[in-house]
Design brief:
The protein has about 220 residues and is α/β, with parallel strands linked by helices. The chain has a single domain, classed as TIM Barrel (Alpha-Beta Barrel). It is about 25% helix and about 25% strand. A 9-stranded mixed beta sheet has the order 3-1-2-4-5-6-7-8-9. Helix 2 runs parallel beside helix 3. The radius of gyration is 17 Å and the shape is globular. About 35% of the residues are buried.
């Protein structure tokens, strides 16, 4: 994979390719608002860069990696340690577009649990304690990544997404946690359909974006 940001000098390109620096949009301490670990205190590292282009994405400002500063792994770690978290969540954008080996190795050495939120459309490079796979129709996960998912979270925008969810379910491990989450702008229209679907298909659970309801990052 080519790790591409224009206008970098040779040293910066090498650091980016090796994962020693990453385009970081933001870092913050909050509560996990979605999925299996809802309510867990976590430090979020949001990495810029995504070419999947979901029309309902609520962090479109993360897409262009060139808009976000390159931050060294050592500086990221300093910010993490200021908050002393038990858990770090690496999200995006699409974080696995980048080499995450150096970042996750440093976090592991610090004794921190590492969660990943990803579409898994690219090779997953890094060491993770939990992988939440949120597949997208526009760019499906690599076949080798399905089995790595600890949690499958399918965003439901319309009723066809239930069929997509079942197609995805067939590809993950039998012990993978299964979640259906209403797309935020459609939640009022689609939530009843999701509830009915889960009652009829009880291996699935409901995920809500709790952080948006209570007004935290």
């Amino acid at each position: 994979m080519e790790y591409s940001i224009t206008g970098l000098n040779k040293e910066q390109k090498e650091l980016l390719e090796s994962g020693q620096c990453l385009p970081v949009m933001e870092m913050f301490m909050t509560l996990q608002g979605e999925g299996y670990h809802t309510g867990l205190a976590s430090f979020f590292i949001r990495i810029g860069g995504c070419d999947i282009g979901c029309h309902w994405c609520d962090v479109k400002e993360s897409w262009d990696a060139e808009k976000h500063p390159l931050v060294s792994v050592s500086d990221i770690l300093k910010q993490v340690k200021l908050c002393n978290p038990h858990t770090v969540v690496i999200t995006g954008g699409e974080p696995v577009y980048w080499n995450l080996n150096a970042l996750t190795s440093s976090l592991k050495e610090a004794g921190i649990k590492i969660h990943l939120e990803t579409s898994a459309a690219y090779l997953i490079q890094g060491h993770f304690d939990w992988i939440c796979l949120s597949p997208k129709k526009t760019k499906l996960p690599l076949e080798e990544n399905w089995a790595k998912a600890d949690e499958l979270k399918v965003i439901v925008y319309n009723r066809h997404d239930f069929q997509f969810a079942e197609e995805c379910r067939k590809k993950v491990r039998s012990d993978c946690k299964l979640y259906l989450q209403p797309e935020w702008s459609k939640s009022g229209q689609i939530i009843n359909d999701i509830v009915k679907y889960i009652i009829q298909n009880q291996d699935w659970k409901l995920s809500l974006q709790v952080h948006k309801f209570i007004g935290i990052p």
